[in-house]
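Q: Please design a sequence for this.
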């Protein structure tokens, strides 16, 4: 004979696992500290200033 399986418990367990996987992906994607965001913003600003400083003349 087969074991009796509670389908509601099975579904809840499956859904919890899916939510946990999605939460982990979101932590990786959005879970940056304020210092990391500020550092990236400063790096982008520095790169922009560097490139603007390397222009020979303004194409006017």
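A: Design:
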């Amino acid at each position: 004979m087969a074991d009796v399986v509670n389908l509601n418990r099975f579904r809840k367990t499956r859904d919890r696992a899916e939510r946990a996987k999605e939460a982990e992906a979101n932590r990786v994607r959005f879970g940056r500290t304020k210092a990391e965001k500020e550092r990236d913003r400063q790096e982008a600003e520095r790169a922009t200033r560097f490139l603007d400083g390397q222009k020979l003349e303004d194409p006017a």
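Q: Thanks. Anything notable?
A: DSSP finds two helices and no strands in the chain. The two ends are 85 Å apart (CA to CA).
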